[in-house]
Structures are given as C-alpha cells and as structure tokens.
Amino acid sequence: xxxxxxxxxxxxxxxxxxxxxxxxxxxxxxxxxxxxxxxxxxxxxxxxxxxxxxxxxxxxxxxxxxxxxxxxxxxxxxxxxxxxxxxxxxxxxxxxxxxxxxxxxxxxxxxxxxxxxxxxxxxxxx
Length: 126
Description:
Blueprint: H1 8-15, H2 17-32, H3 36-62, H4 66-95, H5 97-121
Helix pairs in contact: 2-3, 2-5, 3-4, 3-5, 4-5
C-alpha cells in the first residue's frame, strides 16, 4: 500500500486491529461454545494492557534519554508478559482448564495479530 493513500483513520484501525478483532469475535466465539469467562479474562487483560501500553509509549517518547526510554519500554514488556501469564492462571483457577486454555488462545491470537501489524506498518529505511 502506498503511504500517500493512507488516511489517519486507516492507521488507527490497523494499529488496533488486535483489539477490534477481539471485540468483534467475542459474540461469535461465545456462541460456538468457547469458555465465556476465559474469553473475557483473556480479552480483558489484553485490552487493558494495550491501553496501558499506549500511556507507557507516550511516557517513553517524552523522555530525552535513550537509555531511560529503553528501560521504560523493557520494564513494560516484562510486566505485560507477567500480567498476561497471571491472567491465564487466574482464568484456569477460577473457572477451570477450558477457561485457562481459552484465555491463553485469545492472548496468543491477539499477540500474533499485533506482531503482524507492527511488522507491516513499521517504518522502512530507504
């Protein structure tokens, strides 16, 4: 896609495609029988942590020291990994193995979509 043809709205939808897909897929997945508590925990944890990530990215961008920027981003990445793992454990302990597997599948799906979108939209060197 030519970058001249992109509009800000296109970039916003593409940037948050993982969140959009999780929200749109929720009723369909619940209707086909996946664990509703597991889906809610997995999608909820992902969406909350994506929102926190936006705030963390703004804080890191406002920092002038490169080492501090890296530290902020790395700290968030590690904390996000830990929080997502805890969400899966809580889903499993609270609602059973099916809920834990559903939460894990939702998180892995959302991560895969986010990774693919970031690879497609990242700035290229000329």
